[in-house]
């Protein structure tokens, strides 16, 4: 009997970090990458277009389980794999809700889970009526595509969305409108569920955004009462079980000023808010994801110290990949764990991250931010 062979579609940094965790998870790991010079090129056994069924079928023949670095593989491709008895984890029936925000809202509403007030928008009149019902300002989203703030805009009138409404069939014929939540902070609940329905959750984390992109993650979320922690874990479990999610599930949430906990979005794969777990948890989200999709027992998710802080390294232009400053950052801040993704530099792109694990939250935050500044500035 060989170790389970897990193949990930997508060659980004998540696949790269899955590959790094494969030995601990006791799986053989390979990647279907979109381009030869991908972040996960060290694990790429196949390079090709995941939109082409023939490419994906050839890759599937080399592994026991197919999983994902992203949610963009067409469902019809996955349906064909599943019809041929390929193990797709998470399955297409679950991924459908991660690929389409409107379907996600509809399904979670049926489960009576807490969400912002929302409405499906098909016409300009629909949008005008909704904006009026939520106080004159709303969040408008494209149901498909969009991440890190893309495909999302604040609207006060139909004029703010004219281009989307004029091309609404590019988005499947509908848009998603939501109330603009007055929130205190953003949270994320990471969990995992394996193919045997075993469930485990990490501590709730606080995420801090800059221009719609996650900049800082703090684990556990500071000043969280036990009732909130229990409620967020219950929400994640309810979603995972009802939708049949396997692997890591990230539930992004708002803590509203009025006390509500509201689900924002879902990801069914390792997630940026879980990178702290590489050094901060007994089992990282990447090892856990591989265990889960391969049907192996899940690992413990306890923190290894009082706190873990992760700071993203976001590209500032076309030259700084941060790697050239790693030695200096490591010398000045030896408590910091440094990660580079091996990606070409681009403004706003996630190029890497730093993590500090310590019992003192103020120290962890200060060290992580200081190291990030050295990596950014080189001095």
From TrEMBL:
Pfam families reported in the protein's UniProt record: ATP-grasp, PurK_C, RS_preATP-grasp-like
GO molecular function: ATP binding; metal ion binding; phosphoribosylaminoimidazole carboxylase activity
Keywords (A to Z) from UniProt: ATP-binding, Nucleotide-binding, Purine biosynthesis
InterPro entries: ATP-grasp, ATP-grasp_carboxylate-amine, ATP_grasp_subdomain_1, PreATP-grasp_dom_sf, PurK, PurK_C, PurT/PurK_preATP-grasp, Rudment_hybrid_motif
Protein's UniProt keywords contain ATP-binding: yes
GO cellular component, one term: cytosol
SUPFAM superfamilies (UniProt xref): Glutathione synthetase ATP-binding domain-like, PreATP-grasp domain, Rudiment single hybrid motif
Pathway: Purine metabolism
PROSITE patterns: ATP_GRASP
GO biological process, alphabetically ordered: 'de novo' IMP biosynthetic process
Database matches in Gene3D superfamilies: 3.40.50.20, ATP-grasp fold, A domain, ATP-grasp fold, B domain
NCBIfam families in the cross-refs: PRK06019.1-5 (NF004679), PRK06019.1-6 (NF004680), purK (TIGR01161)
Protein name in the entry: Unannotated protein
Organism: freshwater metagenome
